[in-house]
Short-chain dehydrogenase (Albimonas pacifica), 249 residues
Amino acid sequence: MTDAPDLRPALILGAGSDIGRETARLLAAKGRPIQLAGRRPEALARDAADIAARHGVPVTTHAWDATDLAAAGAFLDGLPEMPGIVLCAVGLLGDQEETQDDAEAIARIVATNFTGPAAMLEAAAARLSRLPGKTAVVGIGSVAGDRGRARNYWYGAAKAGFATMLSGLRQRYAATDLLVTLVRPGFVATAMTEGMDLPGPLVISAEQQAKLIVEGVEKRRHHVIHWKWALLMSVIRNLPEAVFLKTRF
Ligand SMILES: NC(=O)c1ccc[n+]([C@@H]2O[C@H](COP(=O)([O-])OP(=O)(O)OC[C@H]3O[C@@H](n4cnc5c(N)ncnc54)[C@H](OP(=O)(O)O)[C@@H]3O)[C@@H](O)[C@H]2O)c1
């Protein structure tokens, strides 16, 4: 156990995600001990062994389900060491057409993308803000949360809720050394987007997205978004509603 903030572990929630896994690797390469958490911790064992062998840092695995909101605080308190960075990379895109008529699917989308991650980062912020030195909680939202679209509005609405919660959390802890960062990926080539017909120039790799995240934390940025998506979303957000309704993207 250490009081040195740079040597505290990074906890990756949803560590089986492609973006989460790549971010864990980059942080480990910088000497951070790593805690990998997911709902199937046995599936994280291979990544844990690989990261530990390549980077010579301790790596542990932990069971955590984002939809178990009440368990967030106890989960953190049960870790072998309180992390200095907590990244929530959990997400569930779901199928919009199946979701919109199914109350259980709606609840699952909202719990996985909004209330679960938000409750966890709330609990993490309370603990990390009390640690000495600079700490960070990082949530992965989505540009889908910037403006609701017919093709994925339950997912987008949940990500928008998560973004708003992180904005409030950031203001609440503004006088402390806790950084609260929202990451808004556009299209990233991962399991989530596999098989989708995406516009090539707007797609980045999970590793590129992970680099943006790590750089954002190092530079103490509140928002992380690829410059192409920042430009595009500033246009999309400002389209008049009458024009937006006729678009198909
Ligand atoms: N890929 C993109 O284009 C894109 C764009 C915008 C935002 N994002 C966001 O980026 C983040 C990472 O996504 P990704 O693209 O790397 O997708 P991914 O590989 O599909 O990862 C999603 C992860 O979420 C985990 N998860 C789902 N439900 C969970 C639950 N109830 N409890 C714990 N973990 C749960 C999954 O765990 P299992 O392994 O157990 O299924 C999986 O590891 C997500 O927040 C996603 O919404 C992605």
User: Anything to note?
Assistant: The domain at 5-244 is CATH 3.40.50.720 (Rossmann fold). Residues 14, 16-19, 38-40, 65-67, 89-92, 112, 140, 142, 185, 187-188, 190-193 surround NAP (CB under 6 Å).
